[in-house]
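Question (not urgent): is this output format expected?
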Amino acid sequence: MPQLLKASFTKTFAAGISVRIADLTLGTPAVITILFGASGCGKTTVLRCLAGLERPDEGSICFGNETWFDAKQGLLLPPRLRKIGFVPQEYALFPHLSVAQNIQYGLKGWSLSERESRTQEMLDWLELSGLQNRLPGELSGGQKQRVALARALAAKPRLLLLDEPFSALDLPTRQRLRTDLRCLLPQLGIPIIIVTHDRLEAMILGDELVVMDTGQNIQTGSVQDVLNHPANLAAAAVLGMDTVQLGHITEVSDGLAKVNVAGTLLVAMAGELPSGTTEVLVCIRAEDVVVAKHEMSQISSRNQLTGTIHSLTPEGALVRVEVDCGFPLKALLTKNAQNELSLEKNAQVTVLIKVPQIHLIPHGTSRQTAKR
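Got this back:
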């Protein structure tokens, strides 16, 4: 039987800010859960409460048949007895200890031969061999992250918690380590919870996604399902739905919904809309919008709209384009595509959106927690 982590708690700070977690159940072995949300939404507080580094004011936290926290009983199990691995944002390596000594720090009570064997195992597994005698100040950012992970895993924890594990790294190192960790972490066979505000990291690393907003968990489900189907307006905003417009359903037939958005007709999947729904929020990702210079007569797309470019905003190698199609619609293109299409402000364009890439949310489902 897998040991599930079950948590419902509230943590309130002196400034009056509260983090409220409701009915959170995580922890199938080898499944990586992402706590996702904007900076300041309470993700790190949740992680610290799970680790025992913060004491909630109300509620309970249980792991398997163990109670780690129960406000009514006045019970708070200290971090060392929870048998978890925790990697904070700043890694918190001891600067005066070598790599090997940092890894061995949590192995008190192990024999010398056991400590040395486990240390070498961690060095080999995380490709740190040859660095065991170096001090943290002599390591690169990526090497420090691996040492922090090795220290967290050395004592064979039952649960691993990672707080923004790539925040201190440069982009090339971050890209490389994301891929490495996606291969390494499932091999541990323990539940893993990672805090991030980066959607790409969530997509690469995660199996399950918990969306947080203003101190609350508002949606839980598989990464792809949650990213593609936000359950309410708050989740859509957190997950980066670039276009969110109010629409009116005019017809539902054969699983498809015709939706009027400010006088423009769109066709979307009706999905699991409650019977009788008429008012919806129409959600479209910018990367799902195709921009063409002229009407595409040979394309079978049900959503082919004409519009005028309102603005073009550079975003690194990409360009964010806002098109007035009767309503403001955002698209994301490469700079090469912009140049090839000779796109400029006030130009007339055609935009195409596939039916499955338009997500409908019943209007009024703005805040409630949802599981998909």
